[in-house]
Write a structure and sequence with these properties.
The chain has 439 residues and is of the alpha/beta class. The chain has 2 domains: 7-160 and 314-438, FAD/NAD(P)-binding domain; 167-310, Elongation Factor Tu (Ef-tu), domain 3. The chain has helices at residues 14-25, 66-76, 80-87, 100-113, 143-153, 199-211, 232-237, 288-295, 320-323, 348-367, 379-389, 415-438; strands at 7-10, 30-33, 57-60, 89-90, 95-98, 117-120, 133-135, 158-163, 167-169, 179-180, 192-197, 263-269, 276-279, 306-308, 312-317, 336-338. The protein has a 6-stranded antiparallel beta sheet. A hairpin with a 6-residue loop joins strand 12 (263-269) and strand 13. Helix 2 (66-76) packs parallel to helix 12. The two termini are 19 Å apart. The model has no long low-confidence stretch (mean pLDDT 91).
């Protein structure tokens, strides 16, 4: 049975933009709600749709990882986010990194100019009771909408803390104490600026981060962190070698002229003008004065000008295994769908992927045709299978990785051969699924 009302999409982030654009591309009317600039979030700085508030990297863009596989599938689905990213990319080795403002401007323009999309700049404090709705309000869902979702679903939300990495003005970095290189020489050689640390400097930095003053949490808040995005000081707190074997590892960056190299702080290019760098892996909740003091201990950053300091904010997401189907519909209300980080996927491409799938199924609901779930052997299918079937008692946000894909029929070694086989199977199954959907 078809639904005559326009489809409602709540949230103008990557997932909401993808959902709205896909629905509109199928010729159906969409009402896209975005509360900014009427109501800002603790992390956003503009009113643009699809503004990136954490890293400017969409991660790997080669067919050697789950991230690269997901992007290949997204491009096959004509993802608007990938179109914008390709148009606004900056050098980042094997990663797909973008210039933030042009990227968000591209998405905003595409939405505003589409004749089937009505962009409504106001906060939704209730959920529609008629028609088809996709909630893609993101990890910074407003308190009023969070309450409305809780009341509608009859279930509590989980939450975790996500931290932002500082951004540094390029001209304030002492390049005499740093060197340009990408890990294993992937890229043009000047995509990353590296700050070398000997053992004593590394240990002093770790001690300073552990002892530094942190932002005080509210009394009602708990320290629940997503393991894939731990604050740098929390990692340092886990042991003296945690960072040396984590984000500060020198693997792939060792130099003959630096035999004392013990660890490396990587700075990733932030824009095409090469005017700013992002501190890779340095998401933090240290206070602003402490960030300036501690991070200027890093070689080359003694005079660093911080264009953006790290920050922390509360991220809201559903206990998806209790609430959602693999179609991204809620279990008790088929015309209510969710997409993006609020579903429990983590990452820009992952959010975009759920937006596309939610949009496809909203179209199917509108037309009264069968709903769609990609094969579990694909990156898209693996993501929705995870959020719908994971253990609800231990559910935590997840990036795409090969561990989410079903194992091969027979074991293959070495790891490279196994990954190549997983990718080949995924792309073949995805292509077959697309052909079936198109019929």
């Amino acid at each position: 049975m078809s639904h005559p009302l326009p489809i409602t999409v709540i949230g103008g982030g990557l997932a909401g933009v993808e959902a709205a654009y896909h629905i509109a591309a199928c010729g159906l009317p969409v009402h896209l709600y975005e509360m900014r600039p009427q109501r800002q979030t603790p992390a956003h700085q503009t009113a643009l749709l699809g503004e990136l508030v954490c890293s400017n990297s969409l991660k790997a863009d080669t067919l050697t990882s789950g991230h690269g596989l997901l992007k290949a599938e997204l491009r096959a689905l004509n993802s608007l986010v990938l179109q914008a990213a390709d148009a606004c990319r900056v050098p980042a080795g094997s990663a797909l990194a973008v210039e933030r403002v042009p990227f968000a401007q591209y998405l905003t323009s595409a939405i505003q100019q589409h004749p089937q999309i009505t962009l409504i700049r106001e906060e939704r404090v209730t959920l529609p009771t008629e028609g088809i709705t996709i909630v893609a309000s993101g990890p910074l869902t407003s308190p009023a909408l969070t309450t409305a979702i809780q009341q509608r679903l009859g279930s509590e939300h989980l939450y975790f803390y996500d931290a932002l990495s500082p951004i540094i003005a390029a001209e304030s970095i002492d390049t005499q104490k740093t060197f340009f290189a990408s890990r294993y020489d992937i890229g043009d050689g000047d995509d990353y600026l590296n700050c070398p640390l000997d053992r004593a400097t590394y240990e002093n930095l770790c001690t300073a981060m552990v002892e530094a003053e942190r932002v005080t949490l509210h009394a009602f808040e708990q320290e629940i962190f997503f393991e894939g995005c731990l604050p740098i000081e929390e990692m340092a707190r886990r042991g003296p070698q945690t960072l040396a074997f984590g984000p500060l590892k020198p693997v792939g960056l060792r130099r003959a002229d630096m035999p004392e190299l013990y660890a490396v702080v990587q700075l990733r290019l932030e824009d095409t003008m090469r005017s700013a760098y992002n501190m890779v892996g340095f998401q933090t909740r240290l206070t602003y004065p402490e960030q300036r003091r501690v991070f200027r201990m890093i070689p080359g950053l003694a005079q660093a000008e911080f264009l953006r300091l790290g920050a922390v904010h509360r991220n809201t997401f559903l206990n998806a295994p209790r609430l959602l189907l693999p179609t991204l519909q809620t279990k008790h209300e088929p015309t209510l769908l969710f997409a993006g980080q609020i579903t429990g996927v983590e990452g820009y491409a992952e959010s975009a992927a759920t937006g596309v799938l939610a949009g496809m199924n909203a179209v199917a609901l509108h037309r009264g045709t069968p709903l769609l779930v990609p094969p579990a052997t694909t990156a898209h299918g693996a993501l929705v299978r995870y959020i719908a079937t994971a253990n609800p008692e231990t559910f935590q946000p997840m990036n795409i990785h090969f561990g989410l894909l079903p194992p091969l029929d027979r074991p293959l070694h070495p790891k490279r051969v196994r990954r190549e086989a997983l990718i080949a199977r995924a792309l073949a199954d995805f292509h077959t699924w697309q052909e079936t959907v198109a019929r």
